[in-house]
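B., you asked whether I could sanity-check this one before it goes into the benchmark set. Here's the sequence:
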Amino acid sequence: MHRIDDCTSSAYDVAIIGGALSGAATAFQLLQRAPELRVVIVEKSEQFSRRVGESTVEISSYFLGRVLGLTAHLNEKHFVKQGLRYWFYNDRATTLGECSEIGSKFNVRLPAYQLDRAVLDEEVLRRAVAAGAELRRPAQVVGKVELNAGGEQKFVVRDAASGKEETLRARWVVDASGVAALLARQNGWWQANTEHPTTAVWSRWRGVKDWDGLELMGRYPEWTKSCYGLRSMATNHLMGDGWWSWWIPLKGGDVSIGVTFDQRLVDFPKEGSVGERLKAFLCRHPIGRELLENATWQEGDVHLRRNLPYYSNTQVGDGFSLVGDASAFIDPFYSPGIDWIAYTTYSTAALIAAERRGEIDPAKHPAHRPLAERLEKQQRDFNRSHRRWFDAVYRDKYEYFGDYELTQLAFLFDLGLYYLGVASQPYKLGSAALTRPVFSDPPSVPVYHFMRTYNRRFAQMARVRRARGTLGAQNAGRRFLFGGFTFSPGSAKPLCKALAQWGWLELTEGWRSWWQPARQLQVASTTAESPVAQVVTAN
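And here's what the prediction gave me:
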């Protein structure tokens, strides 16, 4: 047993547990706001390894470029991302050229990136240290973090090299421990989201065929001519019934490839190594067979994680805050992870810096909010945002992933509303918009209800199509290539067209499911042994 008071101690203003992107970004923002702060980062790894969360969307890119100042690094060490692409198949689509496609016709107009997270995380940590943060690495938190509202937070750290233990004391402790979710698990705040039982399996691959290469150009000339942008630099998604697969290019020639599936709908292969099972599953899709023909996964970099989504029912308190994956995780589809990092770290840094500057005492200034009020609002906003984000976008979404028509409509609604209502806010209003997470304020409530409604309806229609044997009937030979979204009012036109398509679909087919009750799918016991997230790393 490790007693906190038995160790030598050091005092800080802020102690951050975890030095990857969430922790390092928090430290950097704190020191930009208040350089006099004594900040310490405790990082258990000697060197970061590659991790998922490699594709950014527009909020993430704004945060990385304009808040953290990483634009030059992003352009030098990583790829500029060319949007999202989706590929569908059925019995009539047996080759890449016959698969239905959704994506942009041109290259993108707003910044986004394909990241090597090991490289990015090391760079952000380096900048945090250069700004004045003290780094303990490799070092590990031993035992429980002692939380004292309004007082000193305490925990024991063990240096991995010397074995020496020391007590760190700080006014604030920030949990950036990722999926370990240290504070949430220690204090009973951690909750599994059993309404969304998903599994992910992934690796980095070598020898993957080039989407824009000479071989495929020669084999499918008409398919090549249909798109003027770079398919290979997009986040490509192979879509199937109850599952989707990501394909993300990385600097140096590797490709991050993984699959995420709903355990209630998909039976993942059980024989062989994790890498063999992953390749066998991906090769069900004709594009997977084509592009992975001579590809190999990297030994020692094959991962399986069951029961992905979870959340902490406590986000912040008087002396602590949870950021990034230590706070919550929903789903990798649409790459929301770094968006969540942006909101949680920016709000945490703003809160702690405000207390440091004395901006929490109404007696000093009538515009100041008491700390308790600020904490209550931040807690309410992030809990509400997480829950509504799940309900509006992800609940039962995997039901219709295997259907080109339904996914196309959802794609237009989801992406258009994200651009106009979410991504546009920091670009138009400044970085202070990052203190308002998605769906947390009253003006967003009608949009939340609209999104929840159409996603629920598409899932219900997909169940009827599956029962009638028509799910994915349009998955062969269709191509929807559009001009892309911007922040201009003209980007609302695709939303209007999608609304008309949805209305027509309801009249011609949707009536079959108008009185269908909401269905709670049962989790297959063979794939969901426990509601606790499980991770397997294997060759």
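One thing to flag: The chain has two domains: 1-78+115-192+311-357, 83-113+197-308+395-539. Otherwise nothing jumped out at me.
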